[in-house]
Amino acid sequence: MATPQKIVLRVHIATDVAMKLTLNERPKSVEELKSIMKEKFKPKLNSDFDLQYEDPDFDGQLSVLVDMEELPEKGTLKVVRAECDESSTASSDTDILPHAPLTLRQKSWPDSFPVPTFSFEVEHVLEEGNRSGKPLILSRAQKHNILEKMAETMHSFKPYPNDKEVGKAAEALVTVHPCLRELGSDTGWYGWKVSLKFKMGNFRSKLARSGCAEVSVNVGKRSKNNPDSDHPHSSIKRARLSEVNFLPNFPKGENQDTLKDVRLQIVQELEKAERNQVLIAKLMQTSFALRRQDIVKEDLPVKDILTSWPALRMESQVFAEFHRITNVNLRNQFYSELDRCTPRLIALLRQKALHTGKMALALRKLLETYDRQEENDVNTRRTLFLRALPIYLREDASEFFKTYNVSSVTSIYQLRLIQFSQHVIK
Q1: CA torsion sign, 368 to 371 to 372 to 373?
Q2: Residue 177 is assigned to a structural domain of this protein
Q3: 416, part of any domain
Q4: Which of 83, 50, 110 is nearest to 327 (CA)?
């Protein structure tokens, strides 16, 4: 019987914060390792994150951990948070990701809904009810407090939760407080789900009257005073997919006129020969709410948006804008998913290369070049698939990829990144 493999790791969980992790045996998967780390370092790791390790095949450069067999017995890990994290907000001199200010939403809808803490009276009543194990009959004020707190928590994730998400919130409520389970209901929480739906509607109405932009944008639908307007439930402007900050309010002390001046500042800075990247990033962060109004309220075409906001043509600001809207680091997320799928994708390319035709011939040339490499590190694997993808999709990528001469490269790191691409071109 093989002796369990002991693992000793130095884990950087934040900037200038490193902790030691000793494991008696190697975890079977990266997800299992993440679960162990969340339990070990609780509450410091209470959100989604990816792991990078110092790759000995790449002179200690960081690579995304996708296979536990790649992790040395004694190594260093870096935690890359999926949401706003200081350690991952600036991956290069020109890639400047913003920190979401307190006025912006910080998280998307969670897999497990966190039931909030209610008033002292309600918490006491619920504690007694849970202890007795009997269904609880609430007063009107107590139920109002529960629904109000639940609505506030739901809105902290999104103002327009769908039917499934409201159901998950109701289910979480009766799971944490079994005394609230409804008798005679198949689920035990259907009535709470209906009540939460109505409460969210009332909560949005109050927010709209107070001037909250992401819900007031839908005010003014058909009514007695506006009989010719759209139906109240048609063309609702709401966050889609993973959008977290859909339509934020203007920052404190700013209005439409001052933010338009900020936009002109950005345009003027981009006209300079030497651009101040830090200033551009700061101004783009400040003017985010105005930009979202142009997109959501005015519904401007992409061409007009790029004319008004030329900084969005910069790679660093594409990453930053994505981060502002979704609170996800686009670069890290992309490479993490790419590295996770690469082994299966390369196997698919090899299978297609066995066929006949122009596509198969081009794929064979790529794979032959890949197989001739002395070291097939993570960057080589990424390059192989990204170069093969347009071939597989039968698209022209001649104007998409950039190529360089080895003689013009001064950095060994740069050389390794482009070496495979040069072989492909030859």
Answers
A1: positive
A2: yes
A3: yes
A4: 83
